[in-house]
Amino acid sequence: MSKPNEPVEPQPRGARVRGDRPIDQEEAAERFLAAPRHQKQHDERLWSLRQKRDSEMWKIPEWEELRSLASLIKEHTLSRLDAYLETFEANAKANGVVVHWAKDAAEHNRIVQDILESRGAKTLIKSKSMLTEECGLREHLTAVGVDVVETDLGERIQQLDEEDPSHVVVPAVHKLRTDVANVFAAKIGSDPDDDDPQHLAAVQRMATRPLILKAAAGMTGANFLVAETGAVVVCTNEGNADLSALVPSLHIVSAGIEKLVPGNSDLAVFIRLLTRSALGSPITQYTSHFRGPRNGGEMHVVLVDNGRSERLGMEEFWTSLKCIRCGACMNTCPVYRRSGGLSYGTTYSGPIGLIIDPTFSARKYSHLPFASTLNGSCTNVCPVKINIHEQIYAWRKVLVRNHATPFVKSAVMKAAGLLLARPALYRAAVQGANTALAHLPRFVIYNGLNAWGKHREAPKPPGETFHQWFKKTRGGEK
Ligand code: SF4
């Protein structure tokens, strides 16, 4: 239970999404920062995942070899993707699975709708799948009269609260226990004052189990597709993928074409890396291999492109397709931890989102690659060795070249470029800034135009600049 007189802090909502207009991540981040309890819990929770990941990593002497191997396997598979996809299709068909191909989100949604309609299925239970979020499947099916129920606890919380997931692994991590208690009280009639996590999980289980038992169809995503066996592999900690796949007689899998691995021995490398990187636990509770329909049932796999082929042809960005959606880059990112995943206004947030999102719309997501300190921590933790911070930097160059950045940012960067290219001018500017900092009234320095100074104080200017000191002493040389 929360403490009786603790002030209620409303949960900050995500970025405002207005068609194809650029997402203002800064504005949403500022609102998240203005909610100290939410911000603190979010930061601490994700940092604890990062620390657990580190301690698991240190237990495995061959960790770096595993990362290199995983990277090589993914690069090998992606460079022969057509062949591996055909092998997977042939083996899945031989196992009794119906395989569909979708070139984009609309086709994916139509295929799923057709399968459901042709069997008269009006209720669908599904486990967590970022691809279905990317395609807007739930909204699409709801609009045509299909009742969709998320079976992952975090996803269900987000569904009931009519919000998108804020993290690829822990979708409701931005919420406090009190937020969840309020959502459940409003939507399933539980006690709003009881925010005990065990109680909340039990309430949700009792409310959702009957819906699972009578659902006409089930859906899962895919963590991996194994070409040599035609199997779909799904990792969960709640067993909800197994319920979604095996309770109804109709199982539909939604899978991105980049999920392929050649064989089971390759799969083992990723299974060792995935949950250690994601949650800092040695193994997921359930690693399920779905190789065919259950007895008397049907299984369909929808292989979705939705821009992936195009990304595969982008010289600087194709390796982003190696991503196994572990979320480690988010957990370590100082910007993500402090601003919350919903501030990005898109399905994929955090460092990996900054390089995937502009491939969907360079205009809408033109501000996102600037929401990074480029410290490289994301690259260091990525289990498949994606050079994330270098790709973020590469996107910045592309966006500036294409004039897709805000006018003020471009003008400031141009001025900074001119200044940094002229040493004498730069030294004069530093000297001038030091004098100004020492003598100008506070309101001239800390005002609405100085975004940097909103949350920080400039240090006291030194008596002399480094350049002056070096010129005088030659760095201590005699
Ligand atoms: S980019 Fe790397 S660290 Fe980030 S989610 Fe993907 S696999 Fe994990």
Topology of this structure?
Blueprint: H1 25-33, H2 36-58, H3 63-79, H4 81-94, E1 98-102, H5 105-118, E2 123-126, H6 130-135, H7 137-143, E3 147-150, H8 153-160, H9 177-188, H10 197-213, E4 217-220, E5 224-226, E6 231-236, H11 240-246, E7 250-256, E8 260-261, H12 264-278, E9 286-290, E10 298-304, H13 308-312, H14 328-332, H15 334-339, H16 350-360, H17 377-381, H18 388-401, H19 407-420, H20 423-439, H21 442-445, H22 466-473
Parallel strand pairs: 1-10, 2-3, 2-4, 4-7, 5-8, 7-10
Antiparallel strand pairs: 5-6, 6-9
The chain binds iron/sulfur cluster.
Tell me what you see in this structure.
The chain has 478 residues and is α/β, with parallel strands linked by helices. The chain has 3 domains: 104 residues, Fumarate Reductase Iron-sulfur Protein, Chain B, domain 2; 247 residues, Rossmann fold; 65 residues, no CATH class. 50% of the residues lie in helices and 10% in strands. It has 22 helices and 10 strands. A 6-stranded parallel beta sheet has the order 1-10-7-4-2-3, with helices on both faces. It is globular, with a radius of gyration of 25 Å. The structure holds iron/sulfur cluster. The site of iron/sulfur cluster has 15 residues, from α14.
Give a brief description.
With 478 residues, the protein is an alpha/beta fold.
Characterize the overall form. Answer: globular
| Total beta strands | 10
Q: Which fold name corresponds to the CATH topology of the largest domain?
A: Rossmann fold
Radius of gyration: 25 Å
* Beta-strand share of residues: 5-15%
Ligands and ions found: iron/sulfur cluster
